[in-house]
């Protein structure tokens, strides 16, 4: 299959209407999209990603009206979150109706929904008369893509069209929440911080990862992982244990003189967490492709987006 890359939304919508796969830019990461109402089309997503079918997908829409078409009983607090954070990096679990095939939700009665904040994808969604099911556009378990080039590098022949929307502005996946009995639960840390959600809904509960039967695959202990071994710690203290020419560095602010420049990724010299999130996955991919044997990484401050970034770094560093 020849993959085309560009910004032709008409072509993308024709392909999607035919049941084909199209990679879409969002503000978090690129998604691998298909018609969420078409079971056969959704099957192709699982095949292309090599994703187990017990792992449910996020459904992307452009309006709350469209959300109401395929869900029921939206709790008041969920409506409030939607109003405040959509379009944006928040995914809300809602009771689904029969328009959503069971394959999309892995048999669960809830469907994960969000309105992404990217002008091209919002425009595309408005042109379609169905929502788009889309997981991150990476092979299952590998680092999520934040550019069209990342998608091309790994799924080139498995997708009919890649919409190039430039580098993702947020850079890490959406935060996943559920509202039940007026209580908000967070299942995956992500682009909207816990602090911001609590400011809107009051105290939230957090469900931490489990290695078996996870509610979100982002909860699997090893996920978002590079192929190279990654070690977390105090980089300055770890460095003397390794030959400098074989080491890659993923640091928040500092550079290290002993290590060649092209083997180092500094996420934000100014110490800005939003900037660190933006460059995180591209940085991990870059280091994974350098001739290094090991990647030394450090954690961010445990607040705001720093918590979501640390979550991704910890899972990337866990050896599978
Ligand atoms: O930012 C994002 O969320 C990106 C972009 C493309 O929107 N998408 C993304 O999708 O990260 P994915 O498939 O890589 O992660 C979706 C997560 C999975 O871990 C899945 O288990 C969880 O959402 N999920 C989906 N439906 C669910 C449900 N009904 N209950 C619990 N978890 C669900
Ligand atoms: Mg993913």
UniProtKB/TrEMBL annotation:
Top-level taxonomic group: Bacteria
Annotated residues for binding of ATP: 51, 110, 136, 144, 188, 224
Catalytic class of the enzyme: transferase
Keyword Transcription among UniProt keywords: no
Pfam families the UniProt entry points to: Sua5_C, Sua5_yciO_yrdC
Matches recorded under InterPro entries: DHBP_synth_RibB-like_a/b_dom, Sua5-like_dom, Sua5/YwlC_C, Sua5_C, T(6)A37_SUA5, TC-AMP_synthase_SUA5
Keywords of the record: ATP-binding, Cytoplasm, Nucleotide-binding, Nucleotidyltransferase, Transferase, tRNA processing
UniProt catalytic activity: L-threonine + hydrogencarbonate + ATP = L-threonylcarbamoyladenylate + diphosphate + H2O
Iron in keyword set: no
Binding site for L-threonine: 28, 60, 114, 134, 174
Residue ranges annotated for the YrdC-like domain, each copy included: 6-192
GO cellular component: cytoplasm
EC number assigned by the record: 2.7.7.87
Location of the protein in the cell: Cytoplasm
Task performed by this protein: Required for the formation of a threonylcarbamoyl group on adenosine at position 37 (t(6)A37) in tRNAs that read codons beginning with adenine.
Name this protein carries in UniProt: Threonylcarbamoyl-AMP synthase
Species in which this protein is naturally found: Microscilla marina ATCC 23134
